[in-house]
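Sharing in case it's useful to others searching the archive later.

Someone asked me privately for the predicted structure of Transposase, so I'm posting the question and my answer publicly. Question first, with the sequence:
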Amino acid sequence: MMEKFTADEKAAIAMESFTAINIAGLCRRHGVSVSNFYKWRDKFIESGKQGFYGSGVNNGYEKENEN
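And my answer, the predicted structure tokens:
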């Protein structure tokens, strides 16, 4: 079975939800079930949160030691 939404579409809908007043309306507008939406949003938030944990590699986001 092929997924109806791409990863980019899921991310865009998840991001749109942060400013949406009515989640049910957002889901109806995009043709996604509310339960699937919350799964996507939770996965989106969890994945994004991982970016705040260091991997031991300086990705240019941390200030280098200037000593």
